[in-house]
Amino acid sequence: MANYIKGTLLIIIISMCVLVLFNFRSRSTNRFIPTPRRPQPNCTSLVTEQAITPLKNTKHLLVSAFMDHRLNGFDIRIIGMFHRNSIQPLHCLYCCSGHLSGTTSANTLQHTDHFGFPFGATDVMCQTPENCEASHVTLLTQPTTVDVSDLSWIPIKNKKTSAKEDKMLNFTVCISNLFGDYNNVLQFAQTLEMYRLLGVNRVVIYNTSCGPDLDRLLQSYAQEGFLEVVPWPIDKHMNPSRGWHFPEHGGDIHYFGQLTTLNECIYRSMERSRYVLLNDIDEIVMPYKHDNLMSLMDTLQPQHPDVGVFQIENHIFPKNHYEPSGKFHLPQWRGVPGINILEHIYREDPARNIYHPYKMIVQPRMVEQTSVHEVLKYFGQTYRVPLEVCRLIHVRVALRGSLTLEQLNVDKRLWDFQEKLISNVDKVLGKLGFLMSEN
C-alpha cells in the first residue's frame, strides 16, 4: 500500500513539472516569436519608378500625375498616352498617408491633336475623397479591387513635401524628344550656352536615345544642374513614329510621343517657372530688340496682361549656306560633331501663303493642354509677337530649297553674342576633351 501511494505521488509530481515546463516554454516562445499577422496593404511600397507605366487591363500608358485645382470638381491630373479606340470608364484609387482610399470616377480627356496615330496624349482627371492627403494615385478599370499587390502607383509630383518652397525660376526651356543616333554636339552646346546668355535658368529634355558624344555632353550639363534629362523609354512599350504624318510615317504615336512630353514638361514646370519655352533642340527663341528674354517679357507682358501664350514665328537658316569669310570656322571646333550655327547667317522668308508654324513662350499656369505649334486649351489669350521683336532662329535643312542665295536675308543677330558664346562653348567642350589642339 505504501508503495502504491509513493508511485501515485511520483506521477503527480512529474505531471506538475511537465505542466510548469510547458507553460514556461509557451510564455518564452510567445515573447520572442510573435504570432504572425496578416499584412495590411501599404501603397507606398508599390510606387513605380518608371517614366512610362502600363495600365493593367488596358492598352494605355501612364506617365505622371500632378495636383491641378483649376477645374471645378477635380484636383489631380494624370498625363498618359492612351489607345484612342480603346477608351473605357476608369476609376481613381488614392494612396492617403500610406493607406488605400475608396475609388472615385475618372474623367478622361483626349487631346484633339493626334495626327491620326493610334495613340494620343490623354489626361485623366481625378477628385480625391475628403480627409485624404493623397501622395500617389493609380487607375482601375473596375470601381473596386481586392488585390492591390500588382498595382503601380504614380507619385503626385508637385505635392508639397515641406514648408520650404523652391525658388521660382524665370525661364524653362522644354525640348521634347531625343531619339535615334542624334549626335549634334556642337549645335546643342551652342544652343544651351545661347539660352544661358539670354537668361534661361533650366532646360528639360526627354531622352530615348542619342549618340555617345552627345550623351557625354548631356551628363555634364545634368551634373551641373542646368539640364534636366528625363528618361523616355517609349520604344520599350510601342512602335513610336519618327514623323508627324501617320499615313506617311506609320507607327503608334507621333514623333516618339512629342505631344505627351511637351504637356508633361509644362506641368513639371508649372509651380517652378514663370515662363516656359516650347521648342526643338535646334531652335533658339531670339529677341531682336532686347538683350535677354526677361527684358523682352517685361515689355510684352504689361502691354498684354491677359495673354498667357506668346507665339514666336519660325525662321529657318539653311545649313547648306555658309557665311563667306569663314571667320567663325574655328580651328578648335574642327573635330566636334555637329553644326556651327555661327556660320549660318542666311535666313528664309516664310511662305505665308501656306501654313507656317510658330513656337511658344507660355505662362504654364494659363495652359491646360498644348500641341506643338499652338495651345489646345488655355485660360487667357494668345498673342503673335512681331517678327522684328522676336523670332525663332532655326538652323536646319532648307524648307524652301528652291530659293537662291540672293533671295535669302542676311541675319547676323547671333554675332551680337559671339565673344561670350564662343568662350562659354570652349569651356564646356574643353572640359569634356572635344576641342582640337592648336598644334
Give the structure's gist in a few sentences.
Helix content is 23%, strand content 28%. The chain has helices at 2-32, 185-198, 212-224, 246-249, 258-269, 293-303, 418-431, and strands at residues 53-54, 61-67, 76-83, 91-96, 99-100, 104-105, 107-110, 119-126, 134-140, 154-155, 169-178, 202-207, 227-231, 273-279, 283-287, 307-318, 346-347, 358-362, 367-370, 375-378, 381-384, 390-396, 409-410.
Account of the 3D structure:
The chain is of the alpha+beta class and 439 residues long. The chain folds into 2 domains: 43-155, no CATH class; 169-431, Alpha-Beta Complex (Spore Coat Polysaccharide Biosynthesis Protein SpsA, Chain A). The protein has 7 helices and 23 strands. The strands form 5 sheets. Strands 11, 12, 13, 14, 15, 16, 18, 21 and 22 form a 9-stranded mixed β-sheet that branches. It has a 5-stranded antiparallel β-sheet with strand order 1-2-3-8-7, with helices on one face. β4 and β5 form a beta hairpin. α2 crosses α7. Mean pLDDT is 89; it is low at 17-40.
The residue ranges in which pLDDT falls below 50 over 5 or more consecutive positions are 17-40
Major sheet size, sense and barrel closure: 9 strands, mixed
CATH class category label of the largest domain? Alpha Beta
Spatial shape: globular
> What CATH architecture of the largest domain would you give?
Alpha-Beta Complex
N-to-C span: 120 Å
**Helix and strand composition category:** alpha+beta
* DSSP, total strands: 23
Fold-level CATH name of the largest domain: Spore Coat Polysaccharide Biosynthesis Protein SpsA, Chain A
Q: Number of domains in the coordinates?
A: 2
SSE topology string: HEEEEEEEEEEEHEHEHHEEHEEEEEEEEH
Q: What is the residue-averaged pLDDT? A: 89
The helix tally amounts to: 7
